Amino acid sequence: ILIKLIEFSPDLVKGISTVLIDLNLSKDILHTTGICYELENCFYETYLLGDTLNSGAMSVDAIKEKFLAIEKIVDVEIEDIPTHHK
Q1: Residues 6 or more apart whose Cβ sits within 8 Å of residue 31
Q2: Over the stretch 29-85, which tens digit does the pLDDT of each residue have?
Q3: Which of 59, 71, 83, 76 is nearest to 13 (CA)?
């Protein structure tokens, strides 16, 4: 999940964490990172195991809506990274 922000703030990060908990995705987190380029292009990225997302319990659009409801979030992209199981 790639989240584009206007700026970083503790409240914003708390809001993102709250959404992840509310959507029951926090247990699937592998890695999170945040970065700002030139103090204006800011991104928060979360890599998740896809079990909850792939269960069909919620749509990608519903997840995006939850994040976009947070002030100062301007865009949300959800990308599936295929894994190869042996």
Answers
A1: 46, 47
A2: 999 999 998 877 899 999 998 777 777 677 889 999 999 999 999 999 999 887 766
A3: 71
pTM of the entire predicted model = 0.84
CA dihedral 46, 37, 70, 12 (to 10 degrees): 80
Give the CA angle between residues 31, 56, 74 to the nearest 5°. Answer: 55
Task: Measure the CA–CA gap between 81 and 72, rounded to whole angstroms.
Answer: 26
Helical segments of the chain, H only = 10-22, 51-54, 60-68
Of 81, 64, 76, give the one whose Cα is nearest residue 3. 76
Q: Other CB atoms closer than 10 Å to residue 3's CB: what's the count?
A: 23
